[in-house]
Amino acid sequence: MDTHAAPTEVDFHFDVMCPWAYQTSLWMRDVRDQLDLTVNWKFFSLEEINLREGKKHPWERDWSYGWSMMRIGVILRRLDMDLLDQWYAVAGKALHVDGHRPHNPEVAKHLLEQIGADPEIVEESIADPTTHDEIKAEHDRVVETGGFGVPTLFFPDGQAFFGPVLLDPPMGDAALRLWNGVTAWLEFPHLYEMQRPKQEADEQAIYNTFKPYLEARDWVSINRGKVVGFEPDS
User: Fold this and answer.
1) Residue 49 resides in a domain
2) In a domain, 1, yes or no
3) DSSP label of 7
């Protein structure tokens, strides 16, 4: 008899820049609201994981796209996890749906106002070097587990999964069926991977969904097959 209990809490590692993590976050919020699940939003840097030799680390730059958006998120999370949740929601929508540039400091200030937060948090986050420390610690957690991208989910028993990676995130009963499918893997700690091959129609659907993001980005994307990575322009 299966005695595996479904988790009531999950850590969701994300980078605002990642279009795949954004899609999964929409599903995650729907599951959370239906099950009263606790979602702890945590960070991971695609800029850092894809850093080429000779390039500056994101914490060595005055402004580093995804890293700086997460620094804003650190300040908000110190106040209330719900503020980080709202920040990720509005910044993610701005980039991945509306084709805007939340990585622009002035746009970031406007988005902070939308969630009722002080726009001066942009400057506060940049002036506080400890915001780097929190992001890097959470980034390193994923890497030390063997992770390479987002979304990465950590569960209370210590297991971690990359994914689910999806378009058109399911809602309602379908969202719960997917959650049950994902958490069923917790029973099988040596089940490592199952992947659906992408055909031409899938690639077109991905392009259509990611088009706003592709037009708004100010960085170079790297297609590593399993995950989208990023390289800064300079």
Assistant:
1) yes
2) no
3) P
Nearest to 87 by CA among 97, 98, 101, 72: 72
**Percent helix / strand / coil, the chain, rounded to 5:** 50, 10, 40
233 SS3 class: coil
For tokens 């997917």, name the residue.
178
Pair 186, 7: CB distance under 8 Å: yes
Does residue 224 sit within a domain? Answer: yes
Token couple for 147 = 């992770």
- Report the CATH number at residue 17: 3.40.30.10
Element (H, E) at 39: strand 38-43
Q: Which residues contact 72 (CB under 8 A, 6 or more apart)?
A: 87, 108, 112, 121, 122, 125
H-type alpha helices, 115-199: 121-127, 130-144, 172-184
At residue 1, the pLDDT reads: 41
In a domain? residue 111: yes
Question: How many residues are there in the chain?
Answer: 234
Contacts of 203 (CB under 8 A, 6+ apart): none
The reported pTM is 0.91
pLDDT grade for 228, boundaries at 50, 70 and 90: low
For residues 45 and 23, give the distance between their C-alpha atoms in angstroms, rounded to a whole number.
17
Residue 56 falls in which region: left (phi positive, over 0), alpha (psi -120 to 50) or beta:
beta
The CA distance from 55 to 62, in Å, is 14
Of 8, 1, 17, 48, nearest to 210 by C-alpha is 17
Number of domains in the chain: 1
Predicted confidence (pLDDT) per residue in 72-86, tens digit: 999 999 999 999 999
Domain span holding position 17: 9-231
